[in-house]
Every structure is written in structure tokens, then in C-alpha cells.
Amino acid sequence: MSQLQARDLTRSYGRTPALRGVTLDVDEGEIVAVTGPSGCGKSTLLHCLAGILRPDAGEVIWRGERLDTRPEADRSRLRRTEFGVLFQFGQLVAELTAAENVALPLLLAGTGRRAARETALSWLERFGVAELADVRPGEMSGGQQQRCATARSLVTGPRVLFADEPTGALDTLTGEQVLTTLVRLAREQRTSVVLVTHEPRIAAYADREVTLRDGAVEHSGLELNVPSTGGAR
């Protein structure tokens, strides 16, 4: 059984349907790219899978149990522990340094301050931005901010990372550098990734591509057999 499942999800905003009966499975360690034109429901699907939104109908099943019916407190706890979430613009806390931003999920989960900082520093080093540990986001470039945000999304060793257009605000070279590192580290710790993108070159990093159109699955994708080190085809 797949560890994360969506069954016949529907979701509307007022009278505008965003999802129309979407069914999707994500296996452990699998990287799935969700693609499609703007407004097709990609981000809504990701937010339902991550427990940020509740679907109007259908089910989200996490490791054999309903996720969508859990209280908000339980879903928030999952996003601090077993899930990681990465957005297009990183959404770092402006008042905190890079190390403090990356350590934040660990601190919220009860890790001691010294241990959280040490772990945060090791993740900043993996993304090549260790020298920014005591720098605040306003003093960083967009690429540096996104590297820090990506480190933060992986610092707890999540079982699933939800990435919503994570390179959309970056230039081509910087975006591919960030994504290459993300994919490599996710594979190392067997983290599944649900990657929302409208760019074919970014979708090429995934094992499988699922295409949405008008809120429904147009194509469920075939395994692409990407090498374990990651990288575009």
C-alpha cells in the first residue's frame, strides 16, 4: 500500500471547482511531479495532501489512516514532524538568522536549542550556505534564501516533502542547483517528494509525472527511472 493516498478529492472555492475527483498514490521514497497549466488545481491538491486544506469530498490517507478528518492540531503536528513544506518564495522568518530559521522546526518539536543549532548548521552546509548561518533573510539573495528554506523543509527528516513551485522565483541555473541538491538529499533519506511545477525541465527530476487539467488527472505518469543521485533527464 502506498504511504500517501488521495481518493476522489473534490475542492471548490465558492462556485469555482479546483479539484474534480482526483485520485493519486505516492510511494515511500518516490518523487512525483504534479504538472499542468496555471489554475488547474496543482497547489490545491498539494495543500490537501499536506493537510493544509480539507477537501470538500474524498479522502486523504496517510499510512493507512484518514488525514483529512483529523483536527487541525494533529495536522499541524504532522507538518512539523513527518511532513515538510517548501513554498515558491521560501517564507523565511525575516527576524531570524538562517540558522535560527532552519532550527525552528526542531525547536517546535522539542529539540534542545544547542542540538537544534548544530543540526541546522549541518543542513546549511549541505546546501552550500553555511557562511550565512548568522545572516538574516533580508541580506541574502533569492537563491540563498531558497537554499535556507529547502534546508529547513528537510531538517526534521520528513517522510514526505511537499514543494510548491520551489524554483519558480529563481533563475534557471540557481533553480536547478537548488533542485539537484534537494533531490539528492531527499533520496539519501528516503523522503517522498510531491513537487508542483509547470516547468517540464523541473518535472524531469521526478520519478513520475502526474498531469492535471481543469481539476482532474489527465495523465497519471509512468516511472521515469531517474538515477538514485537525482538530476534532470
UniProtKB/TrEMBL annotation:
Keywords: ATP-binding, Nucleotide-binding, Transport
CDD domains in the record: ABC_MJ0796_LolCDE_FtsE
GO molecular function: ATP binding
Domain ABC transporter per the UniProt entry, residue ranges: 4-232
Coiled coil: none
PANTHER family: ABC TRANSPORTER RELATED, IMPORT ATP-BINDING PROTEIN
Protein name (record): ABC transporter ATP-binding protein
Organism of origin: Micromonospora musae
Taxonomic lineage from the root: Bacteria, Bacillati, Actinomycetota, Actinomycetes, Micromonosporales
